[in-house]
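Q: Joint fold for the lines below.
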Amino acid sequence: MNYDIKRSVSLYSYQDEYYEGKLDLEGCLRETAKAGATGVELLAEQMIKKFPKPIEDEQFREDWFAMLKKYGLEPSCYDAFLENRIYRNRMLCLGEQVNMMKRDLYLASLLGFPVIRTLVSTPMPVIEGSLEYAEKVGVKIGLEVHAPFSLNSGWAEGYLSMIRKTGTKFFGFIPDMGIFCRNLPDVVRDKARRLGATEEGLKIVDDAFAKRVNNGFVKIKYDLDLGKANFEYRMANGMAEMMEAVNALGENPGNLWYANNSFTYSWSEPQDLIDNIEYIFHTHAKFYNVHEDFKETAVALPEVIEAFKKAGYHGFLSSEYEGGEHLRDVGVDSITQVARHQEAMRRLIEA
Amino acid sequence: MAARVMFDPQGFQNIEENGEATGFRFRWKSQYYRGITLSIVHDIKVNIDGEDIPAEAISMTVNGETFTLDEMSTVVDPDYRWEFGEYATVNVKKPGGLAKGPHHLKAIQHIAPSYMPFPWITECVADFVIE
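A: Joint structure:
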């Protein structure tokens, strides 16, 4: 199949350097370009202070486009956070949520983004209510498919029905590669060790994860109460048995942390990408640790990129580094990690 | 490389009014990964040298304005976000302030991003000296 796979970096990846003041927005763009990417993904609320005011300012936008030009980058995706619980005593009503979604579509269009990422917590009527406006401003709404959710599931089917019902070309999926983890990331295991985990405890959790991968994960159900859905999903995937075995080893915060963290990752067949390719217009290339030999330790990157090729994907794979949060007690180097991940993807795409 | 810094090392001070110490303050960064409206900061807990501080005695200052925990629940203006990577100042009322010498602080950020099934709760610990 004819494919056009481009590489992008989500600036989420550089959050530790941004937090420490080592990189500002322009510094992140510079590193993105140096890593070899041609696309940039932005969390406006992360790196644009006094959000959303500056985006409506013409001078700010001129500076933004000048920076993109300077570093040879094009906008790939704007990550929106539908803050529908911004007030503590109520959830925003449907109309308010639609207006918030429209605001993000508008802001994304001002900054040149063709796609916004919306989160799994976005109620279906909010998406439906925003489709006409999305078409008007020419920005697509992509629902992030993040573990514990997956494509080819009852959950995704609900959205596919909506696409078929409305015939929209402005809504689809943004898979997050955390759903293609064949084992747990090594940085997570190492952190558990620093927290005092025992090799016996780690093995119980690794074996339980391997069992989930081999038997296939029980899919999460659609429920706006995400806490409830998540808990049921964990129980259906053998959490009780695993916890019992871990607790039988005695009280150990490292073992317990590793066991709980293990539900942050899941395995789906890369074939899911091929089955759903017509609804995928952006991808979060989530990763946790890339070694000097350009091997990612958890995500099955070669198989996933092979599936994208086979499917004829036209779009970005956007590096999203998430290993840093497990290294904050010892030090994080996102710049090196992103550069290695971009090179790993380049080799696989061009192979 | 070094561990992440949560507190401004220069920010631990007594609050003085008319030459009298009425409390203390510290500066910290949000441990969540984007700038947020104060309305989704659902709680801040402070324990100093083993003593729990009552919620009414705690307030936080961003961009020059100070809000009690209760007031924070309605702060949504773009000018008064807790920006990612920037310090906010926590003010604690405590008659007499802190004595000169070493102190141990344990403070908790309870942030509730709308999409998360569980809130983002981080315990931040610091040892510091009041000169």
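Q: Anything notable?
A: Chain A touches chain B at residues 12, 15-16, 18-21, 43, 45-47, 49-53, 81-88, 119-121, 226-227, 229-230, 328-333 (CB under 8 Å). The beta strands of chain A are 4-10, 39-42, 74-79, 115-118, 140-145, 171-175, 283-287, 314-321.
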